[in-house]
Amino acid sequence: MTVEFHRNLVGGRWVDGDRRPNTNPARPDELVSEYAQAGRETTRAAVEAARAAQPAWARSAVSERMALLDRIGVAILARVDELAVLLAREEGKLLAEARGEVTRAGQTFRYYAHQLLQPAGEVYASTRPDVHAEVRRRPLGVVGLITPWNYPLAIPAWKVAPALAYGNTVVLKPAELVPASAGELARIIVDAGVPPGVFNLVFGPGREVGEELLTAPEVDGISFTGGSTTGGQVARQCLAHGNKRFQLEMGGKNPLVVLDDADLDVAVACALDGSFFSTGQRCTASSRLIVQSGIHDRFVAALAEATDALRVGDPLDPASQLGPVVSPEQLDQNLDYVRIGVAEGATVVAGAAEHSRAAGQFMRPTLLAGAGNDMRVAREEIFGPVSCVIRVDDPDEAIAVANDTPYGLSAGIVTTSLAAAERFKREARAGLVTVNLPTAGTELHLPFGGTGASNHGPREQGGYARDFYTVPVTCYTGW
Q1: 3-state DSSP call for residue 385?
Q2: Range(s) of the domain holding residue 273
Q3: One-character DSSP codes across 167-197
Q4: Contacting residues for 359 by C-beta, under 8 A, at least 6 apart
Q5: 320 near 311, Cβ under 8 Å?
Q6: From CA 24, how far away is CA 5, in angstroms rounded?
């Protein structure tokens, strides 16, 4: 199999760098691709290219931007099977999930092509006679996009597409664990005819590439998806270097509440999907299962049985239901949290606290019962196939425990009571709320984001993305 070499894209040119390997988490000895690691100099050149190209791109006709975005989307959708295999090999996502992600990426570009035909400003009555008042929107400018490894095509797509649609130029820094997906996206964007400098790609570590984006005076905004600690550093750097606009999506510690009146099969299905699918490597994963006493024991028994029945294996094998953990470091962190949970007093009722390295980067999904909401496993984002069950006595306690977290991305409830569902939608402190559905799962035309430590800045996706990538300008005209 040919091993592709993905280079940085700077001002329309493919630029070399230190050659780095990209391996398969299901088969750690297998080389998926190689990539050229950028340094500060290459990143600086990418920023300068984006700055030089931005004025002309901002003035470009809507029809030009629409056509480009549509061509990109069509090209992605034409390569769904090929790109899905690549994504599954480098990230470890099941092939079916990978196909869905690639499809979502293509649809996202096409969606924003059509968003350009939506109303772009507002007209207001002025309080002054013979004065016309309106609000127009102009592009933010040059944006740095820092994306994570768990959705290596979908998240870059939902940042790049609106950025380009609204007249911005882009420097994309993908996670180092998934360079091939970003590299192929860059090739598609170039082949679709993007003008030089409008879209740039740089591979490399945050301490060099990321820091250069955060401190460069030519960068007007940063959109970041990743951990809360890094997100805090991003915010501080943006404020210290030009008061850049920043948008942060920083994960969650998401509750799924199960009330006594819940349909047990629905509750187990929601918890199984939300907690463990995608190997638990989703910021919207259900990592706290808050269960009322009357259904608690039956729920734990049924979920433990369903969890132990999940088939963990190679993501290209149709029989697999969970793929590998993305990296050895992430696997070590997951297993450490299981040991911490047991030490704090929780009990492993599915999965295993120990792990044999002979199997590679695979981990059995693990369910911890008897957890308290004050335990580290209930407070800290694990980002792996580990979930804990917390017993509560009544709906009031369930909502209180669900909201007792610094995060606020997603929250779900399983109940047959319309009153309880409506109360939860009203009182749950989260940006996404589900009823009788898994906490994970979003749609490209609806806003995505949370509260508290999960989010800062305007929402992503849908028409709400315009709030980050454009600047409202109030205009007055006298007659």
Answers
A1: coil
A2: 254-435
A3: T-EEEEE--TT-HHHHHHHHHHHHHTTPPTT
A4: none
A5: yes
A6: 15
Within 10 angstroms of residue 64's Cβ, the number of other Cβ atoms is: 12
Q: Is residue 440 a part of any domain in this protein?
A: no
Q: Are residues 267 and 141 in the same domain?
A: no
Report the predicted TM-score, pTM, of the whole model to 2 decimal places.
Answer: 0.96
3-class secondary structure, 476: strand
- The DSSP secondary structure of 427-469, one letter per residue, reads H--SSEEEESS-S----TTS-B--SGGGEESSPBSGGGGHHHH
Smallest CA-to-CA distance from 448 within 464, 439, 459 is with 459
* Domain membership flag for residue 263: yes
In a domain, 348, yes or no: yes
Same domain assignment for residues 29 and 147? yes
The CATH number given to whatever domain includes residue 376 is 3.40.309.10
Angle formed at CA 335 by CA 330 and CA 337, multiple of 5 degrees: 95
CA distance between the termini of the chain: 69
CATH number of the domain encompassing residue 61: 3.40.605.10
Closest C-alpha among 468, 40, 454, 45 to residue 223? 468
Report the alpha-carbon distance of residue 109 to residue 116 in Å, rounded.
Answer: 11
Q: For the chain of 479 residues, list the mean pLDDT of each consecutive stretch of 10.
A: 90 97 94 97 98 98 98 98 97 97 98 93 94 96 98 98 98 97 98 98 96 97 95 96 96 97 98 97 97 98 97 95 94 95 96 62 95 97 97 98 97 98 98 96 93 95 96 96
Q: Active-site positions?
A: 283
